[in-house]
Amino acid sequence: MRIRCPFCGERDNGEFSYLGDAAPQRPDGLDASAAAMHDYVYLRDNPAGTIRELWYHAAGCRSWLVVTRDTRTHAIEAVEPARDVARARRSGEAA
Description:
Elements: E1 2-5, E2 9-12, E3 17-21, H1 34-42, E4 50-56, E5 64-70, E6 76-81, H2 82-94
Antiparallel strand pairs: 1-2, 3-4, 4-5, 5-6
């Protein structure tokens, strides 16, 4: 599988470290219940189809990326800097 880094260009996936699903949002640790923290840390879906994942370009620019990928075919639809995704998420919450 090859990932097109927005900063370095197309690279082999061996240059990247996989973190997992990019969707979960960490609950506020001060106000969250133990059950909510447990669910955030340990429970993950394993969908067949398109998912947004976090990848770290460890052997390149050291950027965190959000990769939109089909888990059935490994076809990559989009790669975005994670900081841009986080900014869009924050601005969407503020609206």
